[in-house]
Design goal:
The chain is of the alpha/beta class. It has helices at about 1-25, 40-45, 55-65, 80-95, 105-110, 120-135, 150-155, 165-180, 190-200, 215-240, 265-280, 290-300, 315-320, 375-385, 410-425, 470-485; strands spanning about 35, 100, 140-145, 185-190, 245-250, 255, 325-330, 335-340, 355, 390-395, 430-435, 455-460, 470. It has 16 helices and 13 strands.
């Protein structure tokens, strides 16, 4: 009896301790901002209304349906072009601080070039922006999220250096027309991804080209120049009157410990994954290890030049410093290890890194999305150390399933990742100032079509009006935001 009493006392003491400390740890700092996000092609639909031009995703889904998992398109998607007012009400009811959406280039400039501006296209974005402001939600605008006009692609797309000017002309229209209402701009969403999967592998993303194992390097090169050009334009011509902030974002994957994961392998993985994009912006030029390895491997392959293009000194300086924040998209982690085939003189990867995984890890409906919250903390601390703890916006984080309304696994993902982030802020001093839920709605998930759904709100893609309905995660987030405190994961008795 006495033993039983002691055991119960100890047990209660442990429970009290956990709950006491969790409360402190799991509350958002004051001033911290929480929002949600979408991208034009993934939600808008209305692919050919009014004078909208064709973009690379219209072309890709119409001409390469075999590449999309379910052969679907974004022709209608969530029909947000017509239903944006309802979307704004959902964001408002969630209690969120901001809504990140992207502008469809070919909706605003039907020809791709700035010689002709679509009044209808612009009006749509003005209406959406105004609706957000009227409801007390800050609009955050991504100028480009992968859907450039097809005519520009026919002219070489991101492998043509003229894209830098074409993008800048487009950005100027956005600053002029939306800038008076928008205080946060993201120039470009994830150059790394559309460059690698659009210009260096036929099987994934528009425009679906494979270009001599260097298309992705050219594409990132021009994308960084385009970004920097828009940043300087904003600085020189718009910042004084509009008083906003502008930056770029990149997806970085994290890492967890494992066999053969060393400080060196983590560093090399980080520089190829995250530094390729952010080193030119925070430090200047590509990371040394990226330049050296790609040059050496190119030489082994008998190229008379490095497949990684070189920046001139002027471009290095022009690009350096061109972001007001570190924009981060983060979903998953791996165990990065050195490729041992290199010891045999076989170089199959420029990075020299294999992202190994463990079959016991759980994933969402996306096979790549391993749920490893601790990797997020490791990544945030690395960014803090590499770039002098810049203000960091998490602009995407989320979990895919097949659209169930009782999305316990999604809630548990968010609980794990957000608590890891809060610990990095509170315990490790990481300067994270905002967090963004990807995504508001179930939507068109690029080459996965509608087979991998990330929304915290469900969309019925079989109904002609694309009916939205709440998931369990909708009310969970509502509660988290209204209390500014992480809530327990609801238990599901039928869960395995
Ligand atoms: C984001 O990219 C995008 O910005 C967003 O539009 C998208 O909806 C969201 O991801 C969810 O996927 O198929 O094995 O080659 C995040 C970075 C890049 C992570 C592509 C997944 C595919 C891995 N993503 N990557 S694989």
């Amino acid at each position: 009896m006495e033993h039983y009493f002691i055991a119960v006392t100890i047990f209660c003491a442990i429970i009290t301790r956990i709950s006491c400390c969790d409360v402190v740890k799991l509350t958002f700092p004051s001033g911290f901002r929480v929002g949600t996000a979408s991208a034009s092609y993934q939600v808008e639909g209305a692919w050919n209304v009014s004078d909208k031009g064709e973009n690379v995703w219209d072309w890709f889904t119409h001409n390469k349906p075999e590449i999309i998992a379910d052969g679907s398109t974004g022709d209608v998607a969530c029909d947000s072009y017509h239903k944006y007012e309802e979307d704004v009400q959902w964001v408002k009811n969630l209690g969120l601080d901001f809504y990140r959406f992207s502008v469809s280039w070919s909706r605003v400039l039907p020809n791709g070039f700035a010689n002709e501006v679509s009044e209808d296209g612009l009006q749509y974005y003005k209406n959406l922006t105004q609706a957000l402001i009227d409801n007390g939600i800050e609009p955050v605008v991504t100028i480009y999220h992968w859907d450039h006009p097809q005519i520009l692609e026919d002219l070489g797309g991101w492998t043509n250096e003229l894209m830098v000017e074409w993008y800048a002309d487009y950005a100027r229209v956005i600053f002029e027309e939306l800038g008076p209402m928008v205080k946060t701009f993201i120039t470009i969403n994830e150059p790394k991804i559309y460059c690698e999967q659009g210009y260096n592998s036929t099987t994934k993303k528009a425009p679906g080209k494979t270009l001599e194992n260097m298309g992705h390097y050219l594409c990132v090169h021009n994308s960084l120049k385009a970004h920097a050009t828009a940043y300087h334009m904003y600085d020189d011509e718009f910042r004084a009157t509009q008083q906003g902030q502008i930056g770029i974002l990149t997806p970085c994957t994290g890492w967890v410990p494992g066999d053969n994961v060393t400080e060196e392998s983590i560093e090399q993985h980080f520089q190829f994954d995250c530094g390729w994009i952010m080193h030119p912006i925070y430090v200047g030029d590509y990371p040394e290890i990226v330049k050296t390895r790609v040059a050496n491997i190119s030489a082994l392959e008998n190229y008379p030049f490095s497949r990684l293009p070189e920046f001139s000194q002027e471009w290095i300086e022009y690009i350096n410093g061109t972001t007001d924040f570190f924009g981060l998209n983060h979903y998953t982690s791996s165990m990065p290890i050195f490729d041992t085939a290199e010891e045999l003189g076989i170089y199959t990867r420029d990075s020299g890194i294999i992202k190994s995984t463990n079959s016991s890890w759980s994933t969402g409906s996306s096979s790549w999305l391993y749920v490893l919250p601790e990797g997020f903390g490791n990544l945030l601390r690395m960014i803090r150390d590499q770039y002098n703890n810049p203000p960091l916006y998490v602009f995407e984080n989320g979990y895919s399933d097949t659209g169930e309304l009782e999305d316990y696994e999604r809630i548990s993902y968010y609980y794990g990742y957000v608590s890891e982030m809060l610990a990095a802020i509170n315990d490790d001093g990481c300067n994270v100032v905002a967090y963004t839920i990807w995504s508001l709605l179930d939507n068109f998930e690029w080459n996965a079509g509608y087979t991998e759904l990330f929304g915290i709100i469900s969309v019925d893609f079989n109904s002609s009006d694309r009916t939205r309905s709440a998931k369990l995660s909708t009310s969970w987030w509502q509660e988290v935001i209204s209390t500014r405190t992480l809530q327990d994961v609801p238990s599901n008795s039928t869960r395995r």
